[in-house]
Amino acid sequence: MNDEEINFWLDICPTIAQKVEEAIETAKEDPQVTSITKIGADGTPTHKIDEYAENAAIDVLKNSGKSLIVISEEIGTVKVGDNPAESVLIMDPLDGTTNAMKNIPCYGISIAVAPIEMDKTLNDVTLEDIEIAFVKNFPTGDTYLAVKGKYATKNSEPIHVSEVEEARKATLSTYLYRSSHDMNNIYSNVRRMRIMGAIAVEMCFVAEGIYDVFLDTEAVRVLDIAASQLIIREAGGYITDINSNVLSSQIDLMEKTTIVATPNEKLQKDIIRLLD
Fold first, then answer.
1. CATH architecture type of domain 3-158
2. Which residues, 6 or more positions from 94, have their beta carbon under 8 angstroms from its beta carbon?
3. φ, ψ for residue 152, nearest 5 deg
4. HSE-up of 172 (CA within 13 Å, CB side)?
5. CATH T-level assignment (fold) for domain 167-275
6. Whole-model pTM above 0.90?
7. Residue 178 — very low, low, confident or very high, per pLDDT cuts 50/70/90?
8. How far is it, in rounded angstroms, from Cα 29 to Cα 48?
9. Helix, strand, or coil here: 258?
10. Are 272 and 244 in contact (CB under 8 A)?
């Protein structure tokens, strides 16, 4: 992306977040806010609050003047604009739906943008092509940004992963309830564990050094990690799947991957050793 394109997305992402946050606050006044309205394009139940959030984001994008492909949790993959798509935007308008409905202060929005080169189609775009990442934790107001090859910030200040290199010193987040692996070796060998219920936000905690590890041994959706994986990389982190492969999944609503996000390769190897 050139500077003009980068600046466009850096300007519009906060606008999308503001409109979504306003929509969520409006939704909380709806007595049906927690009701399930349909099965979303990703095959999971859609709550009414998710529809409020996604509709607000789509409205901003439709009025942006850009032609792009949008991949989002509820509506799936849609084309916005009349011209050939210049980019693909991967979005979770409400990361941490249950937290939002229960007023647990950890939920937000995740937006990632990748260009679609002239000789490529959407099927050619992978996580490695993402160039802009934006995550906002609504209750705290903390905003995380990354531009590929340039920087990662929190509230406009540079961030960096921790310097922890050993599992026994690490704070780890993992969604243990869905793991088919025997995790006892992990639980008994890390210093502490935390689970907040908002994957994109929690991965940003790795990027700023609050967490040392984010681990998912099953199948997290690419949509959930598209933005935060770039933020971790640009903050100096090390991120692979549980087989130590670089994350290079296709950008697709149904695509999933395992993930080990750490500050460095030494800690990643220590976590992988504990999984074996």
1. 2-Layer Sandwich (3.30)
2. 20, 24, 49, 50, 53, 54, 100, 107, 108, 109
3. -135, 135
4. 28
5. D-Maltodextrin-Binding Protein; domain 2 (3.40.190)
6. yes
7. low
8. 12
9. strand
10. yes
